[in-house]
């Protein structure tokens, strides 16, 4: 666990905002140059909490290829790690995968003093000088004001493999979507899915604040070239009535701009306390039925591109072993979510 320093004399430092690096996961990066998940001035009023959470960099990725034998990273965060139930490596760290599409293998996670807001970390050093395709996953629950990539002097850098499509998979949801409480960024379920489906994912999970406001529907509808919209926000609905009121309107607003884009509605994963709280279990069942009925009604009216996924089955029969606090998944929980969602999304995208 020793914190290694690279030694600046050995490296040239690059901003990933320049070529040939590719930064994914930020829908407005080209216009604004910020690692932010919503536009700075969206044109629609959003809750203050959502606006603040948009600075968290969940789902962001830096992609490139290099023959450098060493790789380091310098990071300037918006704040320090401060969560009791989520590791600092997931909240504020980067992790690294090596390999091409469908062959990405985890390599390492940044090691740093979690009390600091700026850190430098060696990802790897003194490896063979051969081309490797690199993916660096951004922190899940903190903002990144600046990040720099350190490579050996004289190393070559090349663009990463192109995506299968220029279209984006947009995922709107809650703290679970955002990645709470993965031990490191690559284990957030949208990042796991991105290693199995070679397309850009936009993670629009807002911890405690994915409530299906119409303003968010309008903003999401403005994202160009969507491949699919995933709605996974039931867990933040404070009442069954709120879900019943927001879900049909959210879908209708999105459909005005994108009448044929697939929409996948996911009911929430089970909570451990449901085994001991009959009302909690009933509320989940009632809300699942609202989502099923909403999807069925639209399909009966001719919308063949809307689908439902039963989230209560994603964690398996021993779902209570898959969370940190009864509701937020561990890495095991996120892996099971991705295992269940991968064939569903592949089927939807292929059709």
What do you see in this structure?
The structure is a single chain. Strands 2, 3, 5, 6, 8 and 10 form a 6-stranded antiparallel beta sheet that branches. Strands 12-11-13-14-15 form a 5-stranded parallel beta sheet, with helices on both faces. It contains 9 helices and 15 strands. It is an alpha/beta fold and 351 residues long. It is globular and about 60 Å long. It has helices at 29-32, 48-53, 88-91, 175-178, 189-196, 214-221, 240-257, 278-300, 331-350; strands spanning 11-14, 22-24, 61-66, 71-77, 95-98, 105-109, 118-124, 132-137, 144-152, 157-158, 168-173, 200-205, 226-232, 263-266, 306-309. 27% of the residues lie in helices and 23% in strands. GO terms for molecular function: hydrolase activity. This is SGNH/GDSL hydrolase family protein.
Offer a concise description of the structure.
The protein has 351 residues and is α/β, with parallel strands linked by helices.
Outline the secondary-structure elements.
Layout: E1 11-14, E2 22-24, H1 29-32, H2 48-53, E3 61-66, E4 71-77, H3 88-91, E5 95-98, E6 105-109, E7 118-124, E8 132-137, E9 144-152, E10 157-158, E11 168-173, H4 175-178, H5 189-196, E12 200-205, H6 214-221, E13 226-232, H7 240-257, E14 263-266, H8 278-300, E15 306-309, H9 331-350
Largest sheet: 6 strands, antiparallel
> Which bin fits the share of residues in helices?
25-40%
**Please, how many domains?**
2
Form type: globular
């Amino acid at each position: 666990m020793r914190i290694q320093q690279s030694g600046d004399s050995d490296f040239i430092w690059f901003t990933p905002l320049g070529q040939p690096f590719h930064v994914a996961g930020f829908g407005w990066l080209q216009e604004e140059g910020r690692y932010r998940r919503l536009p700075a001035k969206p044109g629609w009023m959003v809750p203050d909490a959502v606006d603040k959470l948009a600075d968290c960099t969940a789902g962001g990725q830096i992609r490139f290829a290099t023959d450098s034998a060493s790789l380091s990273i310098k990071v300037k965060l918006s704040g320090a790690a401060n969560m009791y139930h989520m590791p600092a490596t997931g909240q504020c760290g980067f992790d690294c995968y090596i390999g091409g599409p469908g062959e990405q293998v985890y390599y390492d996670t940044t090691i740093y003093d979690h009390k600091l807001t700026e850190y430098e970390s060696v990802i790897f050093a003194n490896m063979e000088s051969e081309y490797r395709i690199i993916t660096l996953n951004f922190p899940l629950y903190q903002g990144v004001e600046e990040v720099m990539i350190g490579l050996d002097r004289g190393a070559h850098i090349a663009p990463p493999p192109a995506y299968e499509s220029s279209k984006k998979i947009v995922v709107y949801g809650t703290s679970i979507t955002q990645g709470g409480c993965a031990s490191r960024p690559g284990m957030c379920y949208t990042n796991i899915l991105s290693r199995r489906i070679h397309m850009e994912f936009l993670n629009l999970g807002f911890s405690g604040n994915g409530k299906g406001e119409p303003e968010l529907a309008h903003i999401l509808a403005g994202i160009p070239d969507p491949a699919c919209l995933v709605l996974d926000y039931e867990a933040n609905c404070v009442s069954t009535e709120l879900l019943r009121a927001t879900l049909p309107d959210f879908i209708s607003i999105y459909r005005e701009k994108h009448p044929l884009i697939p929409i996948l509605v996911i009911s929430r994963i089970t909570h451990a306390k449901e085994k001991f709280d009959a009302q909690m279990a009933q509320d989940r069942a009632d809300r699942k039925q609202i989502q099923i009925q909403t999807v069925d009604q639209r399909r009966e009216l001719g919308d063949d591109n809307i689908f439902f996924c039963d989230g209560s089955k994603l964690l398996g029969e021993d779902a209570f072993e898959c969370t940190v606090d009864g509701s937020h998944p561990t890495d095991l929980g996120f892996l099971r979510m991705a295992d269940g969602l991968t064939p569903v999304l592949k089927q939807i995208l292929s059709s």
